[in-house]
Amino acid sequence: MKRFVSMVAIFLFAGGIAYAAGTHDEQGGSPPAVAPDNSKINTRDEHPSAKTAEKQSNDPGDVELTRKIRKEITSDDSLSVLAKNVKIITQEGKVTLRGPVNSPEEKNNISKKAEQIAGAGKVQNELEVKGAVTR
What we know:
This protein has a three-stranded mixed β-sheet with strand order 1-2-3, with helices on one face. With 135 residues, the chain is an alpha+beta fold. It has helices spanning 2-23, 39-45, 60-74, 81-84, 104-118; strands at 87-91, 94-101, 123-129. The termini are far apart.
């Protein structure tokens, strides 16, 4: 019996190592055949004028504006998780929205919410519909 328990423990340990080594994805299935390639997006974001999350202003007014928009977006149950995680970058009262969403409706919905809070003409919508051709 002791030998059987030892064998089971070794088997489970070896299986855990193989699993951790990446033989499965997070849901337990096979890994994707081709790794995702974000090279174009990464290159675009390297430009000095590109609005990226690290360029978010620390001005209390900008932080509060971003917080209000984020709260409005995350409280909307009609939006997907992807849409709720878009980047909101505020600088000097002007808001830039970036990231993928699932549909044109989500893109418009998020933009409208941001404009209601920031004001008309103060939102730059750079959201991209997932699967659509990007720049």
